[in-house]
Amino acid sequence: MEGTTSLRIQQAVRRGPPVTLSVNGEAMVAYAGETVATALRLLGFRRLRSSPRAGQPRGLFCAMGVCQECVVRVDGRTVPACLEPVRDGMSVVTHVDGRDGLSL
Ligand code: FES
User: Quick check: CB of 71 below 6 Å from ligand 1?
Assistant: First the structure.
């Protein structure tokens, strides 16, 4: 994990029930109703993939499924993290470069 401190607001927030997901093989907690992008950002991840040619960091940008900068692999599928809701038991892989099929 990139960050070690949660960015979540800790008080006066209503959240869905906690779900456990695997991020790069590490178990982490998110909350039902969040997108994968939201969960990853709040867990401290800013870099979600690398650009295919230069290997430059890419991450959340438009947050509405247009730019594809946030693509990650979820349960073996390449998806925009900003459109994918978290689910209990899902597997998320970030930081995969374009040579590994995450570039668009
Ligand atoms: S941030 Fe643009 S598609 Fe997800």
Answer: no
